[in-house]
Task: inverse folding
């Protein structure tokens, strides 16, 4: 069942987030309180849109979270985080949650996200209609 993400989903989303991003290819170390702060802030961002998919037993299988941003006369969607339980990856769950987001967002045509340029995540997003931004780049400071 796909449902709108609420604060009640935050704890299972934090667990899934830590599980997902501590595994390859990310190999990140997240403390629960830091992940809770990150996801909680995204969830309370104005115009946030988050979806969760729960199995028949109520276990969280995946989530996607982002927010709408105004750009000129239209809205754009910035996808901040998306996780699929490791044991459920490569079964179409990620594609299904992107489709559910598209249905929820309706007329929004421009979506943005940040992910590693090479690897399975970039390939997944490319298969789902995303492309490199071309003239846009990501710049960082130390």
Result:
């Amino acid at each position: 069942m796909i449902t709108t993400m609420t604060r009640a989903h935050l704890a299972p989303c934090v667990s899934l987030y830590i599980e997902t991003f501590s595994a390859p290819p990310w190999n990140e170390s997240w403390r629960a309180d830091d992940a809770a702060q990150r996801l909680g802030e995204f969830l309370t961002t104005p115009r946030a849109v988050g979806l969760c998919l729960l199995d028949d037993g109520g276990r969280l299988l995946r989530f996607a979270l982002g927010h709408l941003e105004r750009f000129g006369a239209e809205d754009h969607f910035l996808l901040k985080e998306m996780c699929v339980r490791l044991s459920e990856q490569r079964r179409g769950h990620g594609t299904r949650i992107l489709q559910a987001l598209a249905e929820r967002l309706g007329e929004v045509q421009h979506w943005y996200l940040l992910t590693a340029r090479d690897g399975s995540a970039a390939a997944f997003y490319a298969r789902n209609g995303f492309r490199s931004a071309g003239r846009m780049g990501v710049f960082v400071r130390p």
In short: The radius of gyration is 15 Å.
